[in-house]
UniProtKB/TrEMBL annotation:
The gene is Sytl5_1. This is Synaptotagmin-like protein 5. It is found in: Membrane. One of its GO terms (biological process) is exocytosis. GO terms for cellular component: exocytic vesicle; plasma membrane. PROSITE patterns: C2 (PS50004). The lineage of its organism: Eukaryota, Metazoa, Ecdysozoa, Arthropoda, Crustacea. GO terms for molecular function: neurexin family protein binding. It comes from Amphibalanus amphitrite. Keywords: Membrane, Repeat. InterPro entries: C2_dom, C2_domain_sf, Synaptotagmin, SYTL1-5_C2B.
């Protein structure tokens, strides 16, 4: 009997650790695919696997399950997963996984099917994967023939929860105080940080059509109340471009050495926007005014771009920064 699972299920490895290369990939998976116009959904049946690798080599067994995304959507809401089958290298699933989508959208999309060993401590082991471009499959509502597919080694794709959140291109400039009457204490006389969020690339698609409506929020930490700045919303894209400059005034260069620019990218919604990724720009010292500050945690390109901005007041510096999957201990965290 087939069981139908159209909802998104949370997997243990999303919260814990996944391991690649611990088990040699082998075996096959049997799948069938069809489109149901009555449901406006793609239906994937996961029938079974055979000759899987043994994650427990001593007992020659695994506890396999199958996880599927309809690319380019790699969000948590777009994930589908079968039940885990215990102590077998030849699991029988016979489960139906459904993905709401218009037929006209499917020609450029791909089913990403991965097989995992479920570890009781959350350290799940990769057993293989299959990529099925839907352009190569005849989709109709008739009974689809089941086909065997050899499991492959890991591809370059990243699932939600890994580092594959995309990249953001940012330009920064510190504008020094204006020359003039030294007694004048206007906000402009203290200097300002200019931020141009130019574009993002390869964001996580959180909508069923493989897209998103992204916008950015920025804060100049530790101030979260008065420093909030936002970009415009760009509709139906995972590679948005923005124009305009965000201005953080009334700040000196010395103060910026002790502060951090937090940038988060969101999918816009009238009810509840979803966080897509984030970055923090600062000196990476872990301290603010001599005290521990978890948000002073920049590294790599984040810290490098911030240092360039501090070293070149009056000039724009620009760089591409990978978005983090989490901003720990901050105002935003992706779970």
């Amino acid at each position: 009997m087939l069981s139908s699972r159209s909802g998104s299920l949370l997997s243990v490895c999303s919260a814990g650790e996944v391991r690649y290369g611990t088990v040699a990939v082998r075996g096959d998976i049997q799948l069938s695919v069809r489109y149901l116009p009555s449901d406006t959904a793609l239906e994937l049946t996961v029938h079974q696997c055979r000759n899987l690798a043994a994650a427990d080599a001593r007992r020659n067994k695994s506890d396999p399950y199958v996880k599927v995304y309809l690319l380019p959507d790699r969000s948590k809401s777009g994930k589908r997963k079968t039940k885990t089958k215990k102590h077998t290298l030849n699991p029988m699933f016979e489960e139906i996984l459904k993905f709401p989508a218009a037929l006209s959208e499917l020609g450029g999309r791909t089913l990403w099917v991965t097989v995992w060993h479920s570890d009781m401590f959350g350290r799940n082991d990769f057993l293989g994967e299959v990529l099925l471009p839907l352009a190569s499959i005849t989709l109709d509502d008739s009974t689809a023939a089941a086909s065997w597919h050899p499991l492959q080694e890991r591809s370059d794709l990243h699932e939600e929860g890994s580092s594959g959140r995309g990249d953001v291109i940012v330009a920064l400039k510190y504008a020094p105080p204006e020359e003039g009457d030294g007694s004048r204490r206007s906000r402009r006389s203290r200097g300002a940080l200019h931020v141009m969020v130019k574009e993002a690339k390869h964001l996580v698609a959180v909508r069923s059509n493989g897209s998103a409506d992204p916008f950015c929020k920025c804060y100049l930490l530790p101030d979260r109340k008065g420093s909030k700045q936002k970009t415009s919303v760009v509709r139906r894209t995972t590679s948005p471009r923005w124009t305009g400059t965000l201005l953080f005034s009334d700040v000196t260069l010395a103060e910026l050495k002790e502060r951090a620019l937090e940038l988060t990218v969101w999918d816009h919604s009238l009810t509840s926007s979803e966080l897509l990724g984030g970055a923090r720009f600062n000196n990476g010292s872990g301290q603010h005014q001599g005290k521990p500050a978890h948000w002073m945690d920049a590294e790599g390109a984040e810290a490098s771009l911030w240092e360039q901005m501090l070293d070149r007041p009056g000039f724009w510096v620009e760089g591409s920064v990978p978005l983090r999957a989490t901003l720990e201990s901050g105002s935003a965290a992706i779970k």
